[in-house]
Write a structure and sequence with these properties.
The protein is α/β, with parallel strands linked by helices. It folds into 2 domains: about 160 residues, Response regulator (Rossmann fold, 3-Layer(aba) Sandwich); about 140 residues, Response regulator (Rossmann fold). The strands form 3 sheets. It has a 7-stranded parallel sheet with strand order 1-12-6-5-4-2-3, sandwiched between helices. A 4-stranded parallel sheet has the order 8-7-9-10, sandwiched between helices. Helix 2 packs parallel to helix 3, helix 4 packs parallel to helix 5 and helix 6 crosses helix 7. The two termini are about 30 Å apart.
Length: about 325
């Protein structure tokens, strides 16, 4: 059964949602190990800080093991975490399939696992304690809707579009791309001509965009770009500028990000990006920490908690700016 966190829509509007979740149970004896991507990734930095901050406010003892979204490194950290026998491991996956063995070993050792952001593989659904995931399909669909709206506003009867995604080994990337393709299918004159992936790397995203702009220059050019995160979209904007392309407006490149950020909000306001979507690290971290606290407190908690995600564009950017700029 899935619980949807519709309450997070008001995160930027209701101060009560910014407070530490109420904790009646004494959690000072509880230990959590957070296995997550490191601060070199701007999304992960805010995400980890939010999780750790809320857990510490609830008096939970927290250890953080950070990685570069390297599956080998994540598995080594999972083994390290299981050996310490915490009350809960919270893990941000780099590759879902590669974590199957590690999660099963945690279950066998009696260590509970909270899987985050990407849906756990079906092979370990009975082994995890719970999961908190973004509505990744909606994130992809929002990007498609943003790009279609931007291209239509320019009056384009046809367009070439590319998609630059995060790690291909996670279900969340698959779900986002599926949502994007389903949205784009509603405007078949706008063709997705290429999909490339990288390890959530902003520098690589810019390089890939630059290569694809050159590749398609003699084939009608590229008119739209979807990037899996705002911090991947910003280098795409720079690559476009370096290629002599204009951004947005009446005939410029239409770019949509996701997992909104301060830089993305600024780019939308400047007219350089057509839009983004939520799954911002502050609210995703809040949802994960809240679920962990409930679990540690012995409260009923759904096996799967899906955070509702929202489309952001120039028309509603002020509504989501506070949430996205944290």
């Amino acid at each position: 059964m899935t619980k949807t966190h519709k309450g997070y829509l008001g995160l930027a509007l209701a101060a009560t949602l910014l407070a530490t979740p109420a904790v009646a149970t004494d959690l000072s004896s509880k230990t959590v190990i957070l296995v997550s991507c490191g601060p070199s990734n701007p999304w992960c930095k805010v995400y980890n800080e939010r999780i750790v901050g809320l857990l510490k406010d609830a008096k939970v003892n927290v250890t953080v093991l950070e990685n570069d979204l390297d599956p080998v490194q994540v598995n080594a950290q999972m083994a390290q975490a299981v050996a310490q026998k915490p009350d809960l491991i919270m893990v941000e996956p780099a590759d879902d399939k590669s974590l199957i063995g590690a999660v099963k070993k945690a279950k066998a050792a009696g260590v509970a696992v909270l899987y985050m952001d990407s849906p756990a593989d079906a092979a370990i659904m009975d082994d995890i304690a719970l999961q908190v995931v973004a509505d990744n399909y909606a994130l992809g669909k929002h990007a498609g809707d943003n790009i279609i709206a931007g291209l239509k506003a320019q009056g384009r009867s046809e367009a070439n579009v590319i998609s630059i995604t995060g790690s291909a080994g996670t279900q969340m990337v698959t779900d986002r791309q599926q949502g994007f393709m389903d949205a784009m299918a509603t405007a078949p004159a706008y063709k997705v001509v290429e999909v490339v992936a990288n390890n959530w790397d902003p520098v690589e995203s810019g390089r890939q965009a630059q290569q694809l702009f050159a590749k398609y220059a003699a084939q009608g050019g590229i008119q739209g770009v979807r990037a899996d995160a705002d911090y991947m979209a910003i280098p795409v904007l720079e690559a476009a500028r370096q290629a002599g392309m204009s951004l947005g407006g009446k005939d410029g490149l239409i770019v949509s990000g996701s997992t909104c950020s301060p830089e993305g909000i600024a780019a939308i306001r400047a007219g350089d990006m057509v839009g983004t979507a939520t799954a911002d690290p502050f609210s995703q971290g809040s949802a994960s920490a809240e679920a962990a606290i409930k679990f540690l407190s012995g409260e009923p908690v759904e096996k799967t908690i899906m955070v509702t995600e929202y489309r952001v564009d120039a028309g509603n950017v002020d509504e989501y700016a506070e949430r996205c700029e944290k």
